[in-house]
Write a sequence for this structure.
């Protein structure tokens, strides 16, 4: 009895340490509180039992062991971490019907695995402790072994069954699409246009099997508020898919869509948001923009570039890609300054940039800063301006007259015309609207063909969209497309004359 | 005696193999890395 208790306690203590380490990744310092309970509780109960032979103490000790085995070992360690790690990855590599699991850091995954292994020891020595107390075996050795093997096979089969994404016909023939639309704050204008593009896609549908309902999800201004709004749409409104845009909200939606196992398309330049399981991004990548931008710069005889850009990860993603591509072909960055969102007087920067004799001024920021910068450049009689996307979304495009930039390749101009006729006064954001329209239609195709929408998106390799052909590599969550060179002519975006 | 030496060794080997293969799998499917830090407010796409 003494030896069995000692071994049982040792396995419990060791596993408690591993559980604590694993939960530091999730709970932070609060994990040490959990660790203290798991270490002190069993120790105190066994000490009590040893001194008094109290059945309450013994039952309490066994219940704590059971908590470790079932709660932490089987549910979290095995089902939540070990099975996705090995079986989930394996199944996803065999068939797109299985999602590629999302992993945490190696430390989290490794401690999760050890949590499961530790719990096996806790279960085994707990079992031996009961046997020792009874003075007789609970099960015959062969029966115990067979039961363990059967339980393992059942668990593996259950995971294989549950992990597979299956088609289920929508309830009442209605498919609900959550549309991420910030109605307030700096994105309100874009959110409004985005929603209208999806609405246009919805009204364009004809003769569909199912009815498609749009559920606007007002994500507000900040990610914390967005999280609650998206959760509400998933749980209360029971949306079947999410069509979203703007990286800041896509990042919040990503884990929620994964947990709900519903597809989420995002017009986001941050390609990491697309995991290829439930999340997919659809917009030209910064690298694709940069390749075209530099090619156009070379065509225009540009050798020296001055960069005046705002501190922001989307913008700096473009800048980084442009710099890499420029360096590759030997273009010179004559001047570079990254300003903050509070900068309003750009004149000293413009003077310094001019001093470096650039052939072009690459500018990128958001409104209202964008118009302020454009106005000060104009006052300095600088008109050789270039960018990625920015002039397209400027509120004062006339300030960018003659500027060139890369943006989405809008193949279907009738789409823009129809949009502007249907929604007069609503700004058409070339880099977002066509993709919102395409995202909606790709998801509709999945439902109309009776396929699980996430699996359908995983399988798409090519899609002829309103802004050119979209392609996606196997297993990737990024729909890629080629941008085009645009100019501001007569105060409006127009494809460059050399456009092919 | 043989069993007392062999079983812990087998467990040690099993755990080492599990941890090593987990490392390989996680390295092949790294967690989402956010280039340039968290996604900021103000990004227009």
């Amino acid at each position: 009895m003494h030896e069995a208790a000692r071994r049982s306690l040792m396995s419990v203590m060791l596993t408690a340490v591993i559980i604590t380490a694993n939960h530091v990744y999730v709970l932070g310092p609060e994990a040490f509180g959990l660790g203290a309970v798991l270490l002190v509780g069993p120790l105190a109960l066994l000490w009590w039992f040893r001194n008094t032979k109290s059945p309450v103490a013994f039952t309490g000790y066994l219940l704590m062991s059971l908590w470790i085995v079932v709660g932490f070992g089987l549910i979290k360690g095995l089902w939540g971490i070990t099975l996705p790690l090995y079986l989930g990855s394996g199944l996803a590599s065999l068939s797109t019907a299985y999602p590629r699991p999302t992993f945490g850091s190696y430390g989290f995954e490794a401690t999760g695995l050890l949590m499961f292994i530790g719990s096996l020891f806790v279960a085994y020595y707990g079992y031996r402790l009961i046997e020792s107390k009874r003075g007789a075996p609970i099960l015959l050795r062969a029966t115990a072994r067979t039961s363990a093997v059967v339980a393992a096979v059942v668990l593996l089969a259950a995971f294989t069954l549950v992990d597979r994404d299956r088609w289920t016909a929508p309830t009442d023939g209605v498919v609900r699409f959550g549309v991420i639309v910030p109605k307030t704050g700096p994105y309100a204008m874009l959110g409004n246009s985005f929603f209208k593009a999806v609405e246009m896609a919805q009204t364009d549908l004809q003769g569909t099997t199912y009815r498609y309902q749009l559920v606007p999800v007002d994500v507000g201004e900040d990610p914390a508020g967005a999280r609650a709004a998206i959760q509400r749409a998933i749980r209360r409104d029971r949306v079947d898919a999410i069509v979203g845009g703007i990286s800041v909200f896509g990042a919040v939606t990503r884990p929620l869509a994964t947990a709900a196992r519903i597809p989420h398309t995002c017009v986001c330049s941050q390609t990491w948001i697309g995991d290829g399981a439930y999340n997919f991004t659809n917009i030209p990548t910064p690298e694709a923009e940069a390749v075209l931008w530099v090619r156009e710069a070379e065509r225009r005889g540009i050798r020296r570039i001055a960069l005046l850009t705002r501190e922001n990860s989307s913008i700096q993603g473009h800048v980084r890609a442009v710099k890499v591509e420029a360096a590759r072909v030997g273009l010179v960055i004559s001047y570079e300054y990254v300003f903050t969102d509070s900068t309003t007087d750009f004149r000293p920067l413009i003077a310094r940039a001019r001093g470096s004799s650039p052939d072009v001024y690459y500018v990128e920021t958001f409104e209202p800063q964008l118009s302020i910068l454009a106005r000060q450049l104009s006052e300095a009689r600088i008109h050789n301006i270039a960018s990625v996307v920015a002039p397209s979304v400027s509120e004062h495009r006339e300030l960018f007259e003659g500027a060139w930039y890369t943006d989405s390749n809008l193949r279907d101009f009738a789409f823009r015309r129809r949009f502007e006729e249907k929604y007069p006064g609503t700004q058409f954001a070339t880099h977002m609207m066509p993709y919102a329209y395409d995202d909606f239609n790709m998801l509709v195709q999945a439902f109309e063909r009776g396929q699980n929408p996430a699996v359908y998106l995983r399988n798409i390799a090519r899609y002829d969209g309103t802004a050119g052909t979209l392609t996606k590599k196997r297993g990737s969550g990024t729909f890629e497309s080629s941008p085009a060179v645009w100019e501001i002519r007569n105060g409006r975006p127009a494809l460059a004359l050399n456009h092919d | 005696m043989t069993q007392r030496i062999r079983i812990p060794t087998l467990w040690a080997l099993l755990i080492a193999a599990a941890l090593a293969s987990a490392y390989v799998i996680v390295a092949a499917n790294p967690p989402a890395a956010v280039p340039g830090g968290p996604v900021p407010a103000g990004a227009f796409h």
